[in-house]
Records
---
Amino acid sequence: MPELPEVETTKAGIEPYVVGSVVKSVVVRQPKLRWPIPLDKMELLQGATVLSVKRRGKYILLEVPEGALLIHLGMSGSMRVLTSYQEPNKHDHVDICLESGQVVRFTDPRRFGSILWQEKAEIHPLLAALGPEPLSESFDAQYLAACCKGKAVPIKQLIMNSKVVVGVGNIYASESLFKAGIDPRRASGRISLVRLSVLVEEIKKVLSLAIEQGGTTLKDFVNSEGKPGYFKQSLNVYGRAGEPCLNCHSILKEVKLGQRGTVYCQSCQH
DNA sequence: AAAGACACCTGGGAGC
DNA sequence: TGCTCCCAGGTGTCTT
């Protein structure tokens, strides 16, 4: 489940191999991802030099003079760099072949990911309404409080809303709410500024730590699974329903919020 | 306007 | 052991 740390790690992992490189060809074996891959646009990449690799939310942008390739890993996607050609496996849907001979390979068993095209000097509609980056200064307590004001929506759903803040998925939303001691079901508008401030800090902390740990696996990025091992980060609540709280030992409870499994501690989170 | 349901897809675990 | 069933999960879109 790529959340922001995994996307950041992936971006950092491919960056040194693609920036300044010339794209020889893009091989699409399976165009049916979340949306069809725009094959005509892929031709614009041929012969193009990759200018930069950027990340916006969970999207990775490969920028070339004509525009940018927009990549989302969905929930089972990954990318890796091959230094020599290898036979593709079943879910290796796209290869970005570089003139250097290296290949950036996109793999996605569940095909929830997407590969799209953003025109030069335009902002793709999918990126247009995104909220601030969680690790940026503009994501602070004042901002979050303004988003929460008067809202009845549970706080967990609010922080997972990409219009509010990008990159906070189910795992990190659950974990940061536990750390902040806030009940995930609590109405967003009924949380004090002080507590929201703690939540903001916990979101930043949990994401930063995961990115840091993802970075330690970069050495394995090439010719590997392409799956950063940031899951080593200990999870307090996610996936632990029915098990004892690591803080108070009461049994962790699971509820559905916005169709998402949500685990929390009834005695530590209010 | 806001909240909920649904859709996409497949591997993997549960149940038989 | 093998088959079927069901679900997770990010996020856009359609329905209340």
Note: Residues 33-34, 74-76, 91, 108-112, 151-153, 157, 258-259 of chain A lie near DNA strand B (CB under 10 Å from a C1').
---
Amino acid sequence: MGKVQRAIPQLVIKRLTRYLTHLQSGVPEDTDWISSHEIAKTLGLTSSTVRQDVSHVNFSGVSKKGYEVRELRKALEDVLGANSVWRAVVVGAGNLGRALVLHEEFARRGFQVLAIFDSNPRIAGRKVGHLTVRGMSDMPRIIREEKVDIGIIAVPAAAAQSVADQLVASGVRGLLNLALAHVVAPRGVAVTDSRIVTSLMELTHAIKMQSQK
Amino acid sequence: MGKVQRAIPQLVIKRLTRYLTHLQSGVPEDTDWISSHEIAKTLGLTSSTVRQDVSHVNFSGVSKKGYEVRELRKALEDVLGANSVWRAVVVGAGNLGRALVLHEEFARRGFQVLAIFDSNPRIAGRKVGHLTVRGMSDMPRIIREEKVDIGIIAVPAAAAQSVADQLVASGVRGLLNLALAHVVAPRGVAVTDSRIVTSLMELTHAIKMQSQK
DNA sequence: TAGATTGTTAATCGATTAACAATC
DNA sequence: TAGATTGTTAATCGATTAACAATC
């Protein structure tokens, strides 16, 4: 395991993920060096912001040359946990939940989906890819046995908190909440929200603004 | 259409969407009034922040009573465009794209998915719900004829910018980018990013932080 | 060496919080 | 009326940007 990290502001973390995906797939394979100015230009930031952000990472650039791409990528992967394999389960076998199980990008980025659960007994037993949908009562055992880190909540808003509580009680260390509801977890369990409908509402506001001009 | 809105900071917009979904499904049907303190408590904010945020909206509360739930909800729906119907298409008929077409939450929130496109000719022609996957060459005509507002990008990172360009050229007013790539659009076209893998990386960083203690 | 780029300090800008007068 | 809550101003806090010495 790497050295102890200081707390990094959430806004910086969000940008670091962008730097990482840019280095992973946005620059030519044979690019050895990249400057803060180049990163800033492509991502629409200032070079100052990029340098400040990178200073949070256990990594140093080189005067006159910039950052070594491979090294910066490794340092970012380390900070973000992108070089580890993470063990996840999905709760909710609706269209979204099933898509996540089948999503190739997850496996490619080190997120293994080990099980999918649904409270509806008529859905339990169905196949999703190579997984079989399990009932909720199997959750505590499977999470324990499979040493699951992350619970992904893909259920209707009304059920989200109850599912979160069950996941936490079963021992997950983090929750990804895709439901349109605020979810609370005890200290020690991280929660991140990710909701496509919310993003769409941000977008429609922006569209309304544009068309006023 | 409502009156002209001042620009509202992006962070405020994000919280306004949370207030709205809370009012829509997080409070009992028969709740008539709600205070800034109550909203703040459930969403983990300060009441000051809530009042500041609400002041951006064309709406006033009442001393001693708080905000009238129905009225505040209407005002928020107006600002966020959640009371209009938005016409969208999905590009990319992989697992994620197909799930979005089938996702009930979209229709319920006023987002109509009118078509789905894929560049792979072996996929074009397949059925996804009641839609048939179209080839990319049909896109300009369909977007024009169907008066599509929003293009949803659900393709691999390498194709994202090219898809964005085609959507913009066809006349959409906003892009929701689900691809792991930075996408640029001309002024006048709004872009919002929403990436589950990015959220997962934020989460894994948080988990790593927690376990250091 | 000269020029370019980092890392960091200080300045600016914006967002959040505290405080309180206005008000029903 | 008394008490509670808004709306708003001012203070604080944090994030971004500018500037520049250090450096290879």
Note: The longest strand of chain A covers residues 111-117.
